[in-house]
From TrEMBL:
Gene3D superfamilies: 2.30.42.10. It comes from Hapsidospora chrysogenum (strain ATCC 11550 / CBS 779.69 / DSM 880 / IAM 14645 / JCM 23072 / IMI 49137). Residues 27-111, 116-205 form the PDZ GRASP-type domain. This is PDZ GRASP-type domain-containing protein. Pfam families: GRASP55_65 (PF04495). Keywords: Golgi apparatus, Membrane, Repeat. The keyword Repeat applies. One of its GO terms (biological process) is Golgi organization.
Length: 334
């Protein structure tokens, strides 16, 4: 069921509007190393998708470096896409006049590369994953120095190649917002299922969430990318409505629009029947039908009497005085 849901979410992501794709960019320069400690850019997680208000569409690193050198002594504006929470932001960075460099090592790569992660869900006791101190639900496997991982089956294939040998993995923890290198030794003889002894999630439902240290949107704030939460200067007025009185913004309900007074419905006469059934009408009919069936089972009289008395119940008492009694002999001669 979860695999089908993941495939459905992937199709939804693939059918996203082009404006969202252009906002985040499908390709960018992934940050591999940051030697400038004063620059708040995270290796692996950050992708540079724009520079000075223009999206990066050319993979030539020389053009990017030349644009940065042109801003020497001033500031350069970088558009950054972060894999944690899949958010885009702008950053104004001063460029030293002496070097004209930012101290970053970059590679041109697709942003979908950040989707190749595996979420650690359950960890069995005494398993290789447990001995390697993998934490359930907060650890994410990003990759391995042993080789590149592309696709859902890539990690399983790498684990099979390292059965009985130590395997190094890059693991990110969401609760502590840190990345560490973990050494794990896959094994088939540890006494449980799988070579790692843990359940892994992959796909749209298991992407990297935003760090817990980031502020959470307050109630009523929008959570969509690029949307603003500012009130408009003009009030909402239905079409054809007169202008509201001056002195403030007002909301004019549709029922109050118009100059002619609204007359009350006629009191006499038969109500006009409406086509279709409302939900309340259907519920009333359902209960009415059930009540009629209950009356039939209990032999209860209907609301409008038909004049026919109900049949006598079994074990009725003796007839009352004045009631005609048939002759027993007549009954015996039949």
């Amino acid at each position: 069921m979860f695999n089908a849901l993941n495939r459905f979410m992937s199709r939804l992501d693939g059918d996203a509007p082009q404006s969202r794709q252009q906002a985040a960019g499908s390709f960018g320069f992934q940050v591999l190393r940051n030697t400038n400690l004063d620059l708040p850019i995270e290796p692996w997680f950050d992708f540079i998708v724009g520079i000075n208000g223009r999206p990066i569409e050319n993979p030539n690193p020389g053009l990017f470096a030349q644009e940065v050198r042109n801003c020497a002594g001033g500031t350069v504006t970088l558009g950054l896409w972060n894999a944690k929470g899949q958010r885009t932001k702008e950053m104004h960075i001063p460029v030293p006049a002496e070097t004209g460099s930012l101290g970053l090592s970059l590679q041109y790569a697709p942003i979908s590369l950040a989707a190749n992660i595996w979420h650690v869900l359950d960890v069995a006791a005494n398993s290789p994953a447990d001995q390697a101190s993998l934490l359930p639900y907060s650890d994410y496997i990003l990759g391995s120095p042993e080789g590149a991982l592309h696709g859902e089956a890539a990690l399983g294939e790498l684990v099979e190649d390292f059965i009985g040998r130590p395997l190094r993995l890059y693991v990110y923890n969401n609760e502590y917002n840190v990345t560490r290198e973990v050494t794990i030794q896959p094994s088939r003889g540890w006494g449980g299922e799988g070579a790692l002894g843990c359940v892994l999630g992959y796909g749209a439902l298991h992407r990297l969430p935003a760090p817990l240290s980031e502020p959470v949107n307050a109630p009523g704030e929008t959570m969509f990318d690029g949307a603003t939460n500012e009130k408009s200067d003009s009030a909402f007025i239905p079409a054809g409505a007169p202008p509201p009185p001056s002195g403030g913004d007002y909301l004019v309900p549709a029922q109050m629009v118009g100059t002619s007074p609204v007359s009350a419905p006629p009191r006499g006469g038969r109500k006009k029947e409406r086509h279709g059934h409302s939900p309340n009408r259907l519920i009333d009919d359902y209960f009415k039908e059930g009540e009629e069936k209950s009356r039939e089972l209990d032999n209860a009289p209907k609301g409008k009497g038909s004049g026919v008395p109900p049949p006598p119940k079994a074990g009725a008492g003796p007839p009352k005085a004045g009631q005609k009694v048939e002759d027993a002999s007549a009954a015996g001669s039949e």
